[in-house]
Design goal:
This protein is α/β, with parallel strands linked by helices. 40% of the residues lie in helices and 15% in strands.
C-alpha cells in the first residue's frame, strides 16, 4: 500500500511533490485549480515537466487529481453541466500533462428529481470525458456520504452508472472511508466490510477500485453527513485499522485528505501506517484461526 496526502499546489503544481516528499509520502493528490472557482488554472509547460521529473526523483508511485467541488453532472441546468464538463476536461488535461494516474470526482446531486432520471442526465457528460482517459489515466467516481440527492451514496448507484456507460474500461472508483461510514457502512466491522467489498466486486469488479481516501469522521455512522476528521481521532477511530487492513486494498494508494500542514511533520501518515499494520496483522491472525 502506498501512503500519501492531498497537498497544496500553491506556488506551482510541482510544489505538491516537494510537499509530499517532505512528509515521507509515496502517493499524492492535488487540485489542478481552485476547488471553488470555475476558471481553470493555466500551468506552464515547465511546471508540468518539473512535476514529472520531481515525481520520479521522489519515488512518488501514485498521483491523483481531484476535481473542483462545484461539479454537478446531474444538474438539470445545462449551463452548470457545461461548466462541469469544461472544468473536468481542464483537470484531465492537466492530469495528462503531469502523468497522473487518476482524476477523482463527485458525480453531483439530482437535487430531488430522482436517481433513475439522473442517470440519463449524467451519462452523456461522463461518456464525453471518458474519451480523455488513457491506459494510464482513469476517471474515478467517488462514493458519497448520502446527503440530499447526492449520487453515489452506495456502491450499487455507482454500478448503475457504470452499466449506463457500457462498463467503460477506464471508469474507476475511489472509496472514501468517511463517506462509506456516513452512508451506513460499518468500516470497522470486518464481516460488514467483507460484504461491502463483495458487493463492489459483484457490481463492477474490484479492478475498478483505483484508490482510497482515508478520512475519519466527525459524525456517527449513517448520518449522511460528510465531516472529515483527522485519521484515528474521530468516531471511526482505531476502527480504521480494519478498513486499511482489508486484503482487497493492499496494493492501492491511500490518501489522507485531512493532513495537517505542519511542514515536514509526518504524524498523519505515521498514524495511517500504524493502523494499516495493525489491521493487516488482525486479518492474518483471523485467517490463521480458521
Amino acid at each position: 500500500m502506498r501512503f500519501g496526502a492531498h497537498v497544496s499546489a500553491a506556488g506551482g503544481i510541482s510544489k505538491a511533490i516537494d510537499r509530499i516528499e517532505a512528509i515521507g509520502g509515496d502517493a499524492v493528490q492535488v487540485f489542478t485549480q481552485s476547488p471553488r472557482m470555475w476558471k481553470p488554472t493555466a500551468h506552464a509547460r515547465e511546471e508540468l515537466a518539473r512535476f514529472r521529473a520531481r515525481r520520479e526523483e521522489a519515488g512518488v508511485g501514485a498521483v491523483a487529481c481531484h476535481a473542483l467541488y462545484l461539479v454537478n453532472f446531474a444538474s438539470r441546468d445545462e449551463e452548470i453541466r457545461a461548466k462541469s464538463v469544461a472544468s473536468l476536461r481542464a483537470t484531465m488535461e492537466t492530469a495528462r500533462g503531469i502523468s497522473a494516474d487518476a482524476v477523482v470526482f463527485h458525480v453531483g446531486s439530482h437535487l430531488g428529481y430522482g436517481f433513475d432520471e439522473a442517470v440519463s442526465v449524467v451519462a452523456p457528460s461522463l461518456r464525453e470525458l471518458l474519451e480523455l482517459t488513457t491506459d494510464d489515466l482513469w476517471l474515478c467516481m467517488e462514493n458519497a456520504a448520502g446527503a440530499g440527492g447526492t449520487i453515489g451514496r452506495s456502491v450499487a448507484e455507482l454500478a448503475v452508472l457504470c452499466d449506463a456507460l457500457g462498463g467503460h474500461p477506464r471508469l474507476g472508483v475511489c472509496l472514501d472511508s468517511c463517506h462509506w461510514w456516513a452512508s451506513g457502512v460499518d468500516v470497522t466491522n470486518a464481516a460488514v466490510l467483507d460484504d461491502a467489498v463483495r458487493d463492489l466486486d459483484d457490481g463492477m469488479g474490484l479492478e475498478r477500485l483505483r484508490l482510497l481516501h482515508v478520512n475519519d469522521s466527525k459524525t456517527p455512522r449513517g448520518s449522511n453527513r460528510d465531516r472529515h476528521e483527522l485519521v484515528g481521532r474521530g468516531l471511526i477511530g482505531d476502527g480504521l485499522a480494519t478498513f486499511l487492513g482489508h486484503p482487497a486494498f493492499a496494493s492501492l494508494p491511500a490518501i489522507v485528505e485531512t493532513w495537517e500542514d505542519k511542514g515536514a511533520d509526518t504524524e498523519d501518515l505515521d498514524r495511517m501506517r500504524t493502523l494499516h499494520r495493525r489491521g493487516s496483522r488482525r486479518r492474518r491472525g483471523a485467517s490463521s484461526r480458521r
